[in-house]
Amino acid sequence: MIQTLSRNNLIILVVIVAAIWLLPLVLNSLWIKVVTSAVIFGLAAAGISVLFAQLGLINLSQIALVGIGGWVLLRLNYATGLPFTISLVAGGIITAIISSILALPALRMRGLYLALVTLMTAGAFQIIFNAFQFPNGGEGFWGVAQQSAGAFRRPLIAQSDVSYLRYVLTVAALCIAVAGVHRLTTPGRAWAMIRQSEANAMAAGIDVTFFKMWAFALSGFMAGIAGGLLAGALQQLDARTFVASDSILLFALAIVGGVYHWLGALIAGLLFKLLPALFNDFGVSADLTLVIFGAALLHAIMTAPRGIAGQILSGFAGLVKHRETSHD
Amino acid sequence: MIDVKNLTVRFGGVVALNQLTLKITDDVVGLIGPNGAGKTTLTNALSGFVTVASGSASVNGLNLIDMAPHQRSRWGLARSFQKVQIVSDLTVEDHLATVLDAKGANRSLRDKAIVRALDYAGILSVRRVRGVDLNPFQRRLTEIAKCLVGAPRVILLDEPGGGLSETEMKELRKVILGIHPEFGAQILLVDHDVELIRDVCTSTAVLDFGKLIAYGPTAEVLEDEVVKAAYLGRMGAAND
Amino acid sequence: DSHSEMSCGMNTGKAATGEPIKVGGINGNAPPGDFSGGTDAAAAYFACVNANGGINGRPIEYIVENDQWNPELAGQVGTKLVKDEGVVALVGNGSVVSMAVNAKLYADEGVMAMASACAISECYESSNIVSTNQGPLPSGIGALKFAIEELGTEHAACIGFNIPNNGGWACDWMNRYMESKGKKGTSILMDPTAVDLNSVYLQALAERVDTILLMLPAGPAIGLLKVAEEQGGRDLFKWVSPTPIYEPGVGEVLGDYWSGHLYVNIELAQYDSDGADNRNWAAVTAKYGKEGDRLDTFSQSGFISAKFFTDALLTLDPDKIDRATVTEAIKGIVGVESDLLCGPYYVGDADRHMPNHAGRMVVYKDGGFETVRDCYDIDTAYLDPIREQEKALGLSQ
Amino acid sequence: MTETLKIRGMSIQSATRRVVDGISIDVPAGQIVALLGPNGAGKSELILGIAGAMAATGTVSIGSQTVSGNGIQGIREAGIAAVPEGHQVLSGMSVRDNLRASGPMLSDDDLAVEVANALEIFPELRKLIDQIAGSMSGGQQQMLSIAQALISRPKFLLIDEMSLGLAPVIIDRLVGVIQGLRSRGIGILLIEQFTQLALDVSDHAYVMARGKLQFSGSPGELKHDPGILEKAYLG
Amino acid sequence: MLNVYGLFLVSGLAVGSLYALGGIGLVILRRSTGVLNFAYGAIAAASAMICWQVVQWGMPGPIAWIVTILTGISLSVLYGRMIAPSLAWRAPTVKAVATLGYTLILLGLIGFVWDDSPRKLELPTDKIGVWILGVRVTVTRLIAFASSIVIVIGVILFFNRTRIGLNMRALADNRDHAALLGIPVIRVETMAWTLSGALAGYTGLLFGDLVRLDPTVITFMVIPATAAAICGRLESLPLTLVGGLAIGVIEAMLALYKPLAPLRSMTPFIVAGCVILWMQRGQHLTFVQGD
Ligand SMILES: Nc1ncnc2c1ncn2[C@@H]1O[C@H](COP(=O)(O)OP(=O)(O)OP(=O)(O)O)[C@@H](O)[C@H]1O
Ligand SMILES: Nc1ncnc2c1ncn2[C@@H]1O[C@H](COP(=O)(O)OP(=O)(O)OP(=O)(O)O)[C@@H](O)[C@H]1O
Ligand SMILES: [Mg+2]
Ligand SMILES: [Mg+2]
């Protein structure tokens, strides 16, 4: 079982690596942009999955955290001459810190209450972003001027949309790998125990506060990196990208995609960005996209708790098994 | 040695522990009393899960009250819960590994410690089985094995016999009896099965309404008229 | 008979069958506003042109995208049109966000956008975008000029959306304008997603202003008027607004309460005015428009943009129509006129464009609108560079 | 009342296996029937199946009237009440509300009488009447859970792990209570951790292991020959 | 100056009663079925749009209002009967998340049926106003305010005094156990969803009239309404009412303080955050899942 699973992982990894090199070659300019966004939000969704799958915590403020990461990157871009990648990591770290601070009031909470706290956070950030806007090269702390945006630096190796997509795929794969390692080691076990019962975890000697904050920090880091990557993709940000309702939507899609495997996060990103773009391209109304998302969410919750990824993977595992037995 | 002095715990108007003073020196000590007497509350106070209103509690001379629950556990205070706590998607050995993770146990010795505890509890064969797939008795034993890894100093067991059949009870008895000689930890055992208490505890404390109503060698305590009236009733007498 | 009044391109009455010329258009149609009037009208006009000989036999293939007020989507559809579809120009654009996102793309790719419903600074301060509508800045200032001169305004509150380079930009210039006149201006910027307009109204009350300028899309502006109506606020302030609230259906929503109390600056001629271009607009949209098309100011604006564009294309050799020649032809437009506009329209080769800055003032009355002041220009420092250009092009003295 | 609660061919399928496999047992009115078996035998599942709280095949009938298929509520209205395993109460509500919610089929007056009766049996609960049920000790919750079943005036009572978490003195009292119920013609199916106690009070005994019935006979037989029990447990 | 404060107070109370009304609807359903229904706003929005449509078809007001309430009830019961039961055994969070799915479906359908043109919903009571502390307050707002209080009192009595109310609370607490106790689950639950749906329809009507007839706005009013519900710990109706009103008043008063005025709309979230912090003071830890 474990062997088949890891073999599946390997196969999918090969597919992803191939995608990094092949995708940009076959897509036209529109789809390069769309896929870039999809992967970026997939990374943000992976952060949601870390909290939900590992700790059972619902985070409805992930998009707000993405906004923070993007804000930091833009600010550093205009205020300093730091290379993009350094600003990106700085954005990730700052978002991780803010995320774990925001988690503080949530530490004694779980379930519904926590979900609501994060929803309140998302609502508050939506208003902050709107009131202060995103840096565009202006003066002062907020760095906003009534002017067209200043010069933006992408990574030297990723100036064009095509090479930037490769950059995004690579960064996202790295971040998700980091989360995957967490899952299998000490933090993963500690989180599982906390998820079942905090009392039980404490009785096992686990510092619940620390591990919860760590989870929030990891999830926030992924959101922050996603935000930086998004800023790099669009070269400017707008408050309307970071509304609370989109945080809710991304959470819902993370569930639909499947929170127990990184493939699910990728699917969530594709659903979040690629599907609407496809529909838009086919001239299908955006409203129907919402209906489909809603129905998919209900379907996933009622019949496929492991999401689309779970179904794909079990189908895949079945296939591999079938082939093995028929070869024997 | 567990030393409890004037310990009081309140829940709103309910006084669950009322100025309780108790010094526990024997290796395996029983804690009994009517329902709602405060037994679980005492284990919770010792392990840090309820807020203590006043009084003190120390173990082997170390003042516990100011320590966070996880620090107490790392120091060597292990406990089980009245309602079994098993994580569905962790394997049995992972349950034990978390305890060692928290204690920062040496990696090379880790596997040995886990095998030893599982072997002792008799569940080595299910070490790679996940929580969901365990039967209730295996869950119980996993919880006890979890208390055994990482060199525990004191183990608090809250109704480990609840819901077990008589044959399983026999096995559990053996397991509990061997803990002190094998692992050196002092044990405080809460249970309503008087037979179990009689067989494994050298001395026993009896609580009622948050107060100590009897304490001493188990056999004597179980003969005590006050204890019979408050706790044992006819059944306790009939089993004599 | 509308047919006899209709005039499109070459007016041959024969359908164009040659190789299509790809033209793009981006609108923003999602809450909080529908800005699809411009592309709707341009589409109708192009359909009419295609049915009348096209561009010397070549039909226009008009590809319209909706950015849904979503900056990311705006970037995507912009790239799609400009890079993947290879359009020769964009016409009729009406979107608040796509201009900010795509201005650089248009400049880099050398493609012109003849917009018709712009509302942010990038739209007027880019080399490759020219809009037929005025946007909030001139239209708002035009409304205030009227308010100062006719209504006795001393202190005005500019209520706008806090959208980058939209509300803040327009309200900033509005304040400078008020100062230049020795009056006072106050900006009240609101979150576009804000639910409760009541508190915005309260803020205006707290500022103790005498005039409210509604720098908002129609929906929220109407909401705010409703709040004021409810609280009996009509007579506490003078109420003026730039163009967006000038909509055909607005009478049904506003009711009698506001009759005679709401003044609107309109950027183009009234819907029912009887200039040739306006009648042509009405006829073309009636015949070639689709059901559900918006017939608002932005529709007139899209129509006239499409017309100017078509006229410019008709000057080109049909075999040599590509992005470079089209861009050159558009930049070559100087001093064309229309009864829809108060002044001449021009593009020219410049870093910013604002050909339309003179408007008319109407008052809401009995469910309709009545003109209270015909074409008048505004005086604001913002227009200084624009006036330079006009002088250089010989369009003004 | 001489009706008998008859369970015929009851099976319950879990995700992986048959946890209850074709069980047929009788609980006559006015008798206590003990159901014994090792851990995981399927006893708890069987009780939930009879009560309609778990999808099961087979029939449940009282006398000649089949009640399975009427849904959980129909079964309850037919007079079958269950005390599920593991201190089940309405944990966020007060003890008073827990008691009052236990007789939805009774009139207001009858409910008041039954609540008073229940508090008579468990005077411990009277002091706790306004406490939130979930914050009570394990044993207190078990008392409440049993009281809830008694309030609804059942004809047949299914009790899972009656003595779980209860002090001996309370168990004593409960034995008196169920004997009193028996004498009033109520049939009781009793699952009990203390085999001795179960055999002492019961009129008939069943033994279950791995989902199947292994023994049916008089309690005396089991008491005199513990080997029967052991054999049944081992299969 | 007092006059200005009075003005903002009255106005704040008027808005606050809308937050409260939304919050109360959430709390009632939660206490009667255990579901935190994020779709409450979407149901309200759909009801309000239907109301507009019926008026548009030329029907008289009272018929439109009845249709509005019936729409709320049907949409609510539809979910309560078709979807909620299959999730009855899941964690409260999962149930809440599922209602997000329903929200998206409703929102999408509304957007599909009605485009975004400006619309207005009117009640005859809009035209009648009284002056309180220098503000003209329409009778509609007075109705919103009074009804939020009446609903709170009525529902408290209903929950605490009636057997049905008791049954609803029991079901919300532990559905399995309540069923085992013989509580007629389907009947009681349907009643709870009906009650909540009627309230959603009513709230939608008032929101459409008093705030804006914009489906997205009404749908997402559930977010600030949640803030009010948090003030009542998702449990207490009076505290929800007080919370909603307090949020409304604070938000209005902030308009007077210029530096914070642009951040005014953060009030619900800040207040809810503070309440949460205050609620958990001294709280130690959370026990087993589902507690
Ligand atoms: N969180 C709480 N809130 C209010 N009262 C509580 C709380 N926890 C426990 N109590 C009360 O404190 C008293 C002691 O409870 P405790 O759980 O310690 O009893 P116990 O001796 O373990 O009983 P049992 O044998 O039934 O498990 C009981 O009356 C109980 O109702
Ligand atoms: N939720 C569940 N998922 C999977 N298996 C389960 C579940 N609940 C019970 N089982 C399994 O079903 C079988 C029957 O369990 P049941 O609780 O009926 O046994 P029992 O005879 O009542 O035992 P006990 O003495 O422990 O109460 C056991 O093997 C148990 O592990
Ligand atoms: Mg206890
Ligand atoms: Mg059982």
Please write out the topology.
The complex is a heteropentamer of chains A (328), B (240), C (397), D (235) and E (291).
Chain B: E1 2-11, E2 14-24, E3 28-32, H1 39-47, E4 54-59, E5 62-63, H2 69-75, E6 77-79, H3 92-103, H4 107-121, H5 136-148, E7 154-158, H6 166-183, E8 186-190, H7 194-200, E9 203-208, E10 211-217, H8 218-223, H9 225-238
Parallel strand pairs in B: 3-8, 3-9, 6-7, 7-8
Antiparallel strand pairs in B: 1-2, 1-4, 4-5, 9-10
Helix pairs in contact in B: 3-4, 3-5, 4-5
Chain C: H1 2-5, E1 21-27, E2 29-30, E3 33-34, H2 37-50, E4 60-66, H3 71-85, E5 89-91, H4 98-109, E6 112-115, H5 121-124, E7 129-131, H6 136-151, E8 155-161, H7 167-180, E9 184-190, H8 198-207, E10 211-215, H9 218-230, E11 238-241, H10 250-254, E12 262-266, H11 276-288, H12 297-314, H13 323-331, E13 359-365, E14 368-376, H14 384-392
Parallel strand pairs in C: 1-4, 1-5, 5-6, 6-7, 8-9, 8-10, 10-11, 11-12
Antiparallel strand pairs in C: 2-3, 12-13, 13-14
Chain D: E1 4-13, E2 18-28, E3 32-36, H1 43-51, E4 57-62, E5 65-66, H2 71-77, E6 80-83, H3 95-100, H4 108-121, H5 123-127, H6 138-151, E7 156-159, H7 168-183, E8 187-191, H8 195-201, E9 204-209, E10 212-217, H9 219-224, H10 226-234
Parallel strand pairs in D: 3-8, 3-9, 6-7, 7-8
Antiparallel strand pairs in D: 1-2, 1-4, 4-5, 9-10
Helix pairs in contact in D: 4-6
One adenosine-5'-triphosphate sits between chains B (11-12, 14, 16, 33, 35-41) and D (131, 135-140, 165).
